[in-house]
Amino acid sequence: KKVDMASQPEWVQKLTVTAAKGLRKGERGLDNVKISVDGIPSGMVSTLTYTMSYSYKTPQGDGSGGFFTDTPIKVDGATTFSRSFDFGTCSTHSCVRHDGVSSMDVEIDFTTKDGDSPIWSGTVEVK
Q: What is the pLDDT of residues 66-109, one digit of tens each?
């Protein structure tokens, strides 16, 4: 879902959310992406959850994938958050790469120490 960012607190509107592509060593050559959130006010956020989705290409055709958490992640007042994710799936014998990912739809749900629940959402270019 897309959130009307104008309805969110100013600090949420000013967050910088980036996605940097890389290659995870030792993980069967899958590309990965590191999502980073910068500009969280110090001491304000206690936890967050996220939902991310993307489209990709494989030799078998186009598909979609994503990542989410349903258990809140403790931030404990930090000003930044980052997490890395693999673009692909692996079984015991092989991996299927998710190629051609150029952007991701991202939603980050925060819980502040005051009990508020602001949300950042948007499309992030994968660089």
A: 999 989 999 999 999 999 888 888 888 777 778 888 899 999 99
- Provide the H-helix boundaries in the chain: 10-13
Burial of residue 125 (CB within 10 Å: 0-12, 13-18, 19+) is exposed
Residue with more model confidence, 97 or 1: 97
| Chain centre distance of CA 91 | 23
For position 73, what pLDDT does the model report?
96
What region does 72 belong to: left with phi over 0, alpha with psi -120 to 50, or beta?
A: beta
Contact in structure between 5 and 12 (CB atoms under 8 Å): yes
Cα–Cα–Cα angle for 101, 107, 64, rounded to 5 degrees: 35
**Vertex 48: Cα angle to 114 and 87 (nearest 5):** 170
Phi and psi at residue 13, to the nearest 5°: -60, -30
